[in-house]
Design brief:
about 280 residues; alpha/beta; Purple Acid Phosphatase, chain A, domain 2; six-stranded mixed β-sheet; 7 helices; about 20% strand; globular
């Protein structure tokens, strides 16, 4: 099975990069399933029904969220109506968080894909333990029997926490990929148990920026410690950042993982992707 995961879509520029590149990528790479982290899709903060619809229309099968899940209040009701929207799984048990943190999908070819969204706890919101939360889901829906693929979005600040999650889920998930820090890491690999892993997928954003935001306000705050206003998404051409994964049909474990970076300032040629397309 071939699928792709794309990192945090930031504002209009990020949404446009998805619309410009994803339809052709789906055809060229033979993608059966696409997951996009969309928690920054609406002007850099949260998601709305309209922005979600843009991403679905561009070819996304599932949208994951993160610490900005509820910045746009309409998301609280939209997520109840939209099963393709997945929020962090590890909200405290006594907290009413609408929607779902894990969702099973069926592709057009009849394969079952479990998507899980987790929120880290290091320098992040005080949620429940993501490790025990994901362990319960993986025990209830084993890869290779109940699911043909398992995709885990670990939305976290600390690289160590993301790496620990990758090893914790190794052999039980097709892909563990980090989001939230918006900078694509160079460590795409298949772990010893067969799980594809990358510490951060990067953002679908204009990289003439500070992690996707216009430079002026972050620079002001760093140099003067005084806020001059809200962060605003950078509006130049965005780079579409993510990962491509191919799995073994029998086990659901990864056979290959390759980074994807198309358009904007980080665009690069990835020969292995061209090889995949020609297979």
């Amino acid at each position: 099975m071939r699928f792709a995961f794309f990192g945090d879509v930031i504002g209009r520029s990020g949404r446009e990069s998805v619309a410009d590149h994803l339809p052709a990528l789906r055809r060229r790479l033979g993608l059966e399933f696409v997951v996009i982290n969309a928690e920054n899709a609406a002007a850099g903060f949260g998601i709305t029904e309209n922005t979600a619809r843009e991403l679905f229309d561009s070819g996304a099968d599932c949208l994951t969220l993160g610490n900005h899940a509820w910045d746009q209040k309409e998301a609280l009701t939209y997520i109840i109506r939209e099963p393709r929207l997945v929020r962090p799984l590890n909200y405290p048990a006594l907290t009413y968080a609408p929607g779902r943190g894990a969702q099973m999908f069926e592709t057009d070819a009849g394969r079952r894909v479990l998507v899980i969204n987790l929120l880290g706890r290091v320098h992040m919101d005080a949620l429940d333990d993501p490790f025990s939360s994901v362990d319960r889901e993986l025990e209830a829906c084993p890869l290779g029997s109940a699911a043909d693929a398992v995709i885990i979005d670990m939305h976290a600040e600390a690289t160590s926490e993301k790496m620990a999650m990758g090893h914790f889920c190794d052999g039980r998930a097709s892909l563990v990929v980090g989001t939230h820090t918006h900078v694509p890491t160079a460590d795409a690999q298949i772990l010893t148990g067969g799980t594809a892993y990358q510490t951060d997928a990067g953002a679908c954003a204009d990289y003439d920026s500070v992690i996707g935001n216009q430079k002026e306000e972050p620079l002001r705050r760093f140099t003067t410690r005084i806020s001059g206003g809200r962060y605003k998404p950078a509006e130049g051409p965005a780079t579409l950042c993510g990962v491509f994964v191919e799995t073994d049909d029998a086990t659901g474990l990864a056979r290959r993982i390759e980074p994807i970076r198309i358009g904007g300032r980080l665009s690069q040629t990835v020969p292995s992707l061209e090889t995949v397309a020609g297979e």
